[in-house]
């Protein structure tokens, strides 16, 4: 199913509302939010399901005994997972960055850790480099902003990553 820009923007608003509710429900705990990086207007397909399940499994395994609450949402705009942990924000962000950098599909995971005021903690504040583009060596945000690569190129690269990952299983 193709997702319109309006649906995508509404899903982001709902995600922010969910984050706020979880922060209010669990004050003084750390909020971790997982989404999948899936370019284009189809956010829910076999590829996104493989990525999401791998991401959620990795997240739950890595935070394991520090999890206070988990919410997983399977939406037409893609999977979302929220983890409330008793780990300090810094430690949670280090784990999130490590998952993104070491998991075979980690470059397709977007794992945000939020400060108490709801602002995502940047990778650089915990000693990690900015995320790199899936295709070239530029910073991912640079290529995204400038639309350096076509959706077709990005989807081909994502397919290669998923194929390699599935073959390892």
Structure overview:
With 169 residues, the chain is an alpha+beta fold. It has a single domain (5-129), classed as Alpha-Beta Plaits (2-Layer Sandwich), CATH 3.30.70. 46% of the residues lie in helices and 18% in strands. The protein is built from 5 helices and 4 strands; from the N terminus they run αβαββαβαα. Strands 2-3-1-4 form a 4-stranded antiparallel sheet, with helices on both faces. The chain is globular and about 45 Å long. The model has no long low-confidence stretch (mean pLDDT 94).
List keywords for this structure.
globular; four-stranded antiparallel sheet; 169 residues; 18% strand; Alpha-Beta Plaits; 4 strands; alpha+beta
The CATH homologous superfamily is termed: ACT domain
Mean pLDDT: 94
Terminus-to-terminus distance = 28 Å
> For the report, how would you describe the main beta sheet?
4 strands, antiparallel
Major sheet: arrangement of strands: 2-3-1-4
Approximately what portion of the residues adopt beta-strand conformation?
Answer: 15-25%
CATH topology name, in short, is Alpha-Beta Plaits
Order of helices and strands: HEHEEHEHH
Low-confidence stretches: none
**Tally of structural domains:** 1
Q: How many H/I helical runs? A: 5
Q: Rg, please?
A: 16 Å
The helix-and-strand class reads alpha+beta
Q: How many DSSP-defined strands?
A: 4
Task: Give the name of the CATH architecture.
Answer: 2-Layer Sandwich
Question: How does the overall form come out from the CA principal axes?
Answer: globular
Helix content: 40-55%
CATH class: Alpha Beta
């Amino acid at each position: 199913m193709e997702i319109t820009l309006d649906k995508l923007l509404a899903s982001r608003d709902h995600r922010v509302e969910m984050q706020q509710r979880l922060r209010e429900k669990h004050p003084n705990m750390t909020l971790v939010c997982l989404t999948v990086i899936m370019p284009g207007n189809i956010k829910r397909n076999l590829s996104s399901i493989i990525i999401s399940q791998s991401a959620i499994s990795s997240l739950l395994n890595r935070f394991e005994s520090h999890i206070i609450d988990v919410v997983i949402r399977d939406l037409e705009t893609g999977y979302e997972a929220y983890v409330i942990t008793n780990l300090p924000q810094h430690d949670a962000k280090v784990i999130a960055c490590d998952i993104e950098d070491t998991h075979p599909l980690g470059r397709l995971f977007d794992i945000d850790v939020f400060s108490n005021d709801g602002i995502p903690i940047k990778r650089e504040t915990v000693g990690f480099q900015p995320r790199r583009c899936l295709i070239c060596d530029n910073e991912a945000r640079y290529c995204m902003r400038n639309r350096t690569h076509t959706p077709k190129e990005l989807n081909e690269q994502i397919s290669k990553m998923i194929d390699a990952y599935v073959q390892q299983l």
